[in-house]
Amino acid sequence: MPVQRTVYGGVAAPGKPVVTMTLMALCAGAFLLQWLVPGFTERFWYAPLYTLPNPIYDAEPWRMITSAFLHSQGFILHIAFNLYALWILGNHLEPLLGRLRFLALYLLSAFGGSVAVLLLSAPNVPVLGASGAVFGLFGALFIVQRQRGGDVKSLLVLIGINVVLGFVVSGISWQAHLGGLAVGALAALALAYAPRGKNRTALQVGGLLLLFLLLAGVTALKSMA
């Protein structure tokens, strides 16, 4: 039997959004470990000093991803909002993109948020949270809705409100929000606008790989500066 495909070429998987639920479970599990394991948060959060040359800390670039699964222990709404947004956005995007494409989108958005923190934030200020990745999903949803001819006005308002909140509410990493938003939109462009045909998957993978290499290259150049 021929493989059933999603709107954007992924393998169709009927049923619940497994990747979305897995990401939510990982965030919840990490949050529990933050409470139970001393030093767990500090071991996996991210600050630019972990990817900048310095005499104290070794380079630990994986923190740019692991930090996206941690959340503030002093503000329970931090994880509550992110998991709620991930559930809503994932339920919409995962069936359209397919599981692997959705996972790639999410992780690239998280990486993009951390790269923006590296470029725009103070070296010793730690960040944590799935917000950068979630903003990437917002950016991707905007691109997908535009490509499908849907109304994006209300979505733009919602994105705008959340972007502004990042600048006016203390303790929020607006850098991660903007970085994730931009990278999520770029990743979605590669997925949604790849021409249909036998080369579609190769073009999508190539676009995502190019985006990853760009982010990795910026990180490497900054670490050598």
Overview of the molecule:
- The chain is mainly α.
- The chain has a single domain, classed as Up-down Bundle (Rhomboid-like fold).
- Helix content is 66%, strand content 0%.
- Helix 4 crosses helix 5, helix 5 packs across helix 6 and helix 5 packs parallel to helix 9.
- One of its GO terms (molecular function) is serine-type endopeptidase activity.
Short description:
This protein is mainly α and about 220 residues long. It has nine helices and no strands. The protein has one domain (about 20-225): Rhomboid-like (Rhomboid-like fold, Up-down Bundle).
Number of strands: 0
Low-pLDDT runs: none
Sum up the overall morphology in one term.
globular
SSE class: mainly alpha
Helix content: 55-70%
Domain tally:
1
CATH class: Mainly Alpha
- Give the DSSP E fraction (strand runs of 2 or more residues): under 5%
Protein name: Rhomboid family membrane protein
Family: Belongs to the peptidase S54 family.
Membrane topology: Multi-pass membrane protein
Subcellular location: Membrane
